[in-house]
Amino acid sequence: MMGAPLQCSLFLLKEQGLLHHCNSASATYLFQQDKFYDVSYDTGDKSVQCGRKVDAFKFWLMWKARGDVGLEWRIDNAFQCARYMTEKLQSREGFRLVLPEFECTNVCFWYIPPAFRGKTEDEDWWEKLEKVAIAFPL
């Protein structure tokens, strides 16, 4: 929401080691254990992007350039755009929200083609509807 690249992202938790425990692949072909140093310092298995470290300096520069107000505006704008999208989908025939209200800035919806509208929404109906997106690629 702030426009920061992934490598600038941080996700901090109170529970030490929880993310490492949940996401560690321990891929021996990537993280050989026969190093001449303590392998617990290898960051590859502790990061979303494997061997790439979190680049906090880029985030700091972005924060200095935009400031608190600028970053706040970007997040507020993302939520306003999500609200606008929700209102547009609710007012257009053939679109149905997956959730009655969005929980963040992701607005998920179904497109209901005219041939599907007003029909009984049974298992067969949903099975056919699931194939609509595949039939109409971007």
TrEMBL record:
Query: What processes in GO biological process is this protein linked to?
Result: carboxylic acid metabolic process
Q: Which cofactor does it need?
A: pyridoxal 5'-phosphate
Which GO-annotated molecular functions does the record name? carboxy-lyase activity; pyridoxal phosphate binding
Pfam families in the record: Pyridoxal_deC
Example of a GO cellular component annotation carried by this entry = cytoplasm
Q: Which keywords accompany this UniProt record?
A: Decarboxylase, Lyase, Pyridoxal phosphate
SUPFAM superfamilies under this entry?
Answer: PLP-dependent transferases
The cross-references to InterPro entries, in alphabetical order and at most eight, read: PyrdxlP-dep_de-COase, PyrdxlP-dep_Trfase
Q: Which family, according to UniProt?
A: Belongs to the group II decarboxylase family.
Q: What is this protein called?
A: Uncharacterized protein
- Recite the lineage of the species: Eukaryota, Metazoa, Ecdysozoa, Arthropoda, Crustacea
